Amino acid sequence: MIVEHSRIIRIQGDIITVPATGITYGELAEVKSRHGVSLAQVIRLKDHDVFLQVFAGSRGVSTGDQVRFLGHPMRVVFGDALLGRIFNGSGEPIDNGPELTALPRIDIGGPSVNPVRRIIPRGFIETRVPMVDVFNPLVESQKLPIFAAAGEPYNELLARIGMHADADVVILGGIGLKYDEYLKFRNSFEEAGVISRSIMFVHTASDPVVERLLVPDMALAVAEQFGVQGKRVLVLLTDMTAFADALKEIAISMDQVPSNLGYPGSLYSDLASRYEKAVDFEGAGSITILAVTSMPGDDVTHPVPDNTGYITEGQFYLRKGVIEPFGSLSRLKQLVIGKVTRPDHGYIMNSMIRLFAKSREVEQKLAMGFDKTEEDDRFLRYGKLFYDRFMDLNVDRGLNDALDLGWTTLAECFRPDEVGIKQEFIDKHWPREGQGANCVAFPAG
């Protein structure tokens, strides 16, 4: 039912307050001012007062203006015609394509999927990023954040995964993006030829703050519909810290009692309600969420990454332009390693990480002034090969090719009896030529 009110009792920043009853949280309203009609969303209910965030800002809004409640929450269009399209934070097309007025609209921000409809994750999503596929595989219906400090190439990594991921539909939710970052995503997807199976919801830094809160909900609402239809959907969100900052900004405007560093006390549940949309439907498709969480000051104890870590199933740490092998974790990887992937996957993964850790120890030993041995040369060489062939984010290699290269790398630097792998796998996969410690040593000094 549409309800009209013409008494705005308070205007604070972009938030207006109207006395009303029978209104629900998240409901949309139209504010008719001398500048035209603006959309607003209910963000708080207190007694008989309704607080609304005006999308276009409250400039030009006066206490005599009319507020018209629409009786439904924010909605987004849905249908196969969304594929290949780009929308703003209000769900309006920004790609100069045709309007989608004929498509049905679905509510956003609904509850998570009933646990009864969920099944245990069992699918593997290949990304062609070796540090993901080999060492911390992305599992269907998983929710994983990318923790990174400002300046790290997290959007480039997200674009890489979006271009190569083995998924039916890729949905990008850009939150507070710079305009050139948005263009990089669009151009990357177009050049890779995946734009036809992609959908983008993009909020730029110059757009209304409230739209930052809508982007994840729109992306996930569309993902749910495709998932129910049997599609394997990958949702890429960047940056969830910008999403949390919008929550903080609105909470401060409403004079809410702040929690840690000014963030609202509801931060955990606000994040969890989005991440818990990741699901593997029984008898249908799946939704997998990979989301950037930037860390101010590279501080993992900051409220946003700290809360995120309790919700998600692991994390990727992006440091110095690479995915750090120590600290990154996919808690669901054991569900696919050696079961969906090759039987030697787990053995090659564990051996390579163990030997790389040893190469790091050698580097630290030499940095403290200890003499270098012949064995140290082998570990240093192995560490360099590991970085160049697996850690470098420019490497584009499928899982099986990466596993084969892992065997080759081990054989170039170590003997079969030094890698700690079962003999049956050594017999099957160890390169036949040049067996033994053939690693080229670094020159002294």
What this model shows, in words?
The chain has eleven helices and 21 strands. The chain has 445 residues and is an alpha/beta fold. The chain folds into three domains: 3-72, Thrombin, subunit H (Beta Barrel); 76-333, 3-Layer(aba) Sandwich (Rossmann fold), CATH 3.40.50.12240; 345-429, no CATH class. Helix 8 (345-367) packs across helix 10.
Provide the fold topology.
Blueprint: E1 3-5, E2 10-12, E3 15-19, E4 27-33, E5 36-46, E6 49-54, E7 66-73, E8 75-77, E9 86-88, E10 105-107, E11 124-125, H1 130-133, E12 138-139, E13 143-148, H2 154-164, E14 169-177, H3 179-192, E15 198-204, H4 210-228, E16 232-238, H5 240-253, H6 267-275, E17 279-280, E18 286-294, H7 303-311, E19 314-319, E20 322-323, E21 329-330, H8 345-367, H9 374-391, H10 399-413, H11 423-429
Parallel strand pairs: 9-15, 13-18, 13-19, 14-15, 14-16, 16-18
Antiparallel strand pairs: 1-7, 2-3, 3-6, 4-5, 4-7, 5-6, 8-10, 11-12, 17-18, 19-20, 19-21
Helix pairs in contact: 2-3, 6-7, 8-9, 8-10, 9-10
Helix % is 25-40%
Largest sheet: 10 strands, mixed
Find the structural class using helix and strand composition: alpha/beta
CATH fold type of the largest domain: Rossmann fold
Please give the CATH architecture of the largest domain: 3-Layer(aba) Sandwich
CATH class of the largest domain: Alpha Beta
Uncertain stretches: 441-445
In total, the number of domains comes to: 3
Number of helices: 11
Q: Hey, roughly how much beta strand do the residues contain?
A: 15-25%
